[in-house]
Amino acid sequence: MKTLSDVKTKSSAIVKGVKGSDTLRLLEMGFTPGSKVEVVRAAPLGFPIEVKVRGYLVSLRKSEAECIEIK
User: Fold this and answer.
1) Are 47 and 61 in contact (CB under 8 A)?
2) By the 8 A CB rule, do 62 and 5 touch?
């Protein structure tokens, strides 16, 4: 299973699903199945990452990115 934390900077993917304790919050932020996401940039040590979803820029911690399954 691949998650958003596996996506390289300047790459995009499609959300397959969301799991974990932050599910509702992530869904409300726009990470719904079928949504296109793009990793815009990452901090020097890899996290947090800045992700573009539904036209918005969102900063995610590693634990949050690992809850988002991608295709």
Assistant:
1) yes
2) yes
